[in-house]
# Entry
Amino acid sequence: MPEPIITKKDVEYVARLARVAVTPDEVEKIQGQLERILGYVSQLKEINTDNVPPTAHPIDVTNVWRDDVASPFPHLKDLFKNAPEMEETFYKVKKVIE
# Structure
């Protein structure tokens, strides 16, 4: 029988790092799932990717950015009309520090 890629001890260690309580049955289930995942990923080592450029998305995607220009809000009274209390142009709230 081949040696497992990930052991039960590895699963328990990662669960402890993540502060996740796992039962022995869950450890066995997770180990099997991770074995299959890592086995599938290891298949990628067999593929020649020398001439493949690194990508984060299968199609070209670009963000449309606008210039970030600061400007005064023209309807300041509308902005504060639902505020329960104000002081000048600031919301006034109860102190929340104990």
About this structure: The chain has a mean pLDDT of 87. The two ends are 61 Å apart (CA to CA). The chain has three helices and two strands. Residues 8-46 form a domain with the Histone, subunit A fold (CATH 1.10.20.60).
